[in-house]
Write a structure and sequence with these properties.
By secondary structure, the chain is an alpha+beta fold. The chain contains two helices and twelve strands.
């Protein structure tokens, strides 16, 4: 009887430890769509460091998991203001319950517009040889600049012609960022650091 109780306690502790690690340190995440292709593909699984931004600021180029503004998750946009020929400058005030994964392309105080799917930040076009070309979609060219608000980050998927991102629902507050994706672990052919 003592051995069975010991086994139950060990299993319970292992489950508790695993849940604690996931809640505080590292969270697994499955890629839900093609918006991050070719970098990440649908059903690929990555690990997200939940502590990364407790000790430092997010950086341009980081691939992050976050909550988008409410309305973004159902394809309804989520932009709180009229867009016109510019990227959405302001999202809704409420976070969605959904988790998205995108790349940070601009940070607080940056001026941004979009040319041929590339972010032009503070007058300089980003060098992004890893993205999938944007094509002729209207959001590929948004020539009126916006300024990213304090403590907000502008997110774009690497598949610029097929990504529902900050161009449509605005910059994301820092406290809606869950963490930085740092390692792909499934499928095995995709294993490695991001």
């Amino acid at each position: 009887m003592g051995a069975v109780l010991e086994l139950v306690v060990i299993v319970a502790m292992a489950i508790g430890l695993a849940l604690g690690i996931q809640a505080v340190i590292v969270k697994p995440f499955q890629i839900p769509s093609e918006s991050m292709e070719p970098t990440l593909v649908p059903t690929e699984r990555v690990l997200v460091n939940r502590l990364s931004y407790k000790f430092g600021d997010p950086s341009i180029g980081d691939v992050v998991v976050f909550h988008p503004p409410n309305g973004a998750d159902d394809g309804g946009g989520g932009c709180a203001v009229e867009m016109g020929e510019r990227p959405c400058p302001e999202g809704t005030d409420e976070a969605s319950e959904q988790n998205f994964i995108k790349r940070i392309v601009a940070g607080p105080g940056d001026e941004l517009y979009v040319e041929d799917g590339h972010p032009v930040v503070n007058g300089e076009m980003a060098e992004e040889d890893f993205i999938r070309r944007c094509g002729a979609a209207p959001a590929c060219n948004l020539s009126e600049p916006i300024e990213i608000p304090a403590d907000h980050y502008f997110m774009m998927g690497d598949n610029r012609g097929s990504s529902d991102d900050s161009r449509f629902w605005g910059p994301v507050p820092r406290d809606w960022i869950i963490g930085k994706a740092f390692f792909s672990y499934w499928p095995l052919r995709e294993i490695g650091l991001l």
